[in-house]
């Protein structure tokens, strides 16, 4: 099924949203893929979390002493659309929205 992008032209604003439940979390051989539509601009957003890290820790970005993997992860809009007022030094490529997604 193709990804559907319902993008809305809005200005860039760093905005925190509540936990989003309409995102899909898919296990891949090399990690997790989190995908869905941004709650602010509606643009298609996809984040990949790689298993482990170059430093040799195990699991999903957790310290060596952690007993459990994280239950939520923060996701930023990376819709790829150019939003008005987006700062040149913005770390994300989207509208500035961010939210949490439950992994389990």
Can you describe this structure in just a few lines?
With 104 residues, the protein is mainly β. It is 0% helix and 31% strand.
End-to-end CA span: 23 Å
Q: Please give the count of helices.
A: 0
H/E element string?
A: EEEEEE
Helix % is: under 10%
Compute the number of strand runs: 6
What coarse outline follows from CA principal-axis ratios?
A: elongated
Which sheet architecture does the biggest sheet show?
Answer: 3 strands, mixed
Q: Low-confidence parts lasting 5 or more residues at pLDDT below 50?
A: 53-57
- Total number of distinct structural domains: 1
Mean pLDDT: 82
Sum up the structure in keywords.
single chain, 104 residues, mainly beta, three-stranded mixed beta sheet, three-stranded antiparallel beta sheet, 0% helix, elongated
Could you explain how this protein is built, in words?
It is built from no helices and 6 strands. Residues 53-57 have low confidence and may be disordered. 18% of the residues are buried. It has 104 residues and is mostly beta strands. The strands form 2 sheets. It has a 3-stranded mixed beta sheet, with no helix packed on it. A 3-stranded antiparallel beta sheet has the order 2-3-4, with no helix packed on it. The chain has one domain (15-102). Strand 3 and strand 4 form a beta hairpin.
């Amino acid at each position: 099924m193709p990804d559907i992008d319902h993008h809305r032209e809005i200005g860039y604003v760093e905005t925190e949203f509540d936990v989003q439940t309409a995102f899909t979390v898919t296990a891949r051989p090399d990690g997790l893929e989190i995908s869905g539509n941004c709650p602010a601009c509606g643009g298609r957003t996809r984040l990949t979390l790689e298993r482990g890290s170059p430093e040799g820790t195990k699991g999903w970005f957790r310290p060596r002493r952690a007993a459990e993997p994280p239950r939520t992860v923060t996701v930023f809009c990376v819709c790829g659309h150019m939003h008005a007022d987006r700062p040149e030094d913005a770390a994300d490529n989207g509208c500035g929205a961010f939210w949490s997604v439950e992994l389990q």
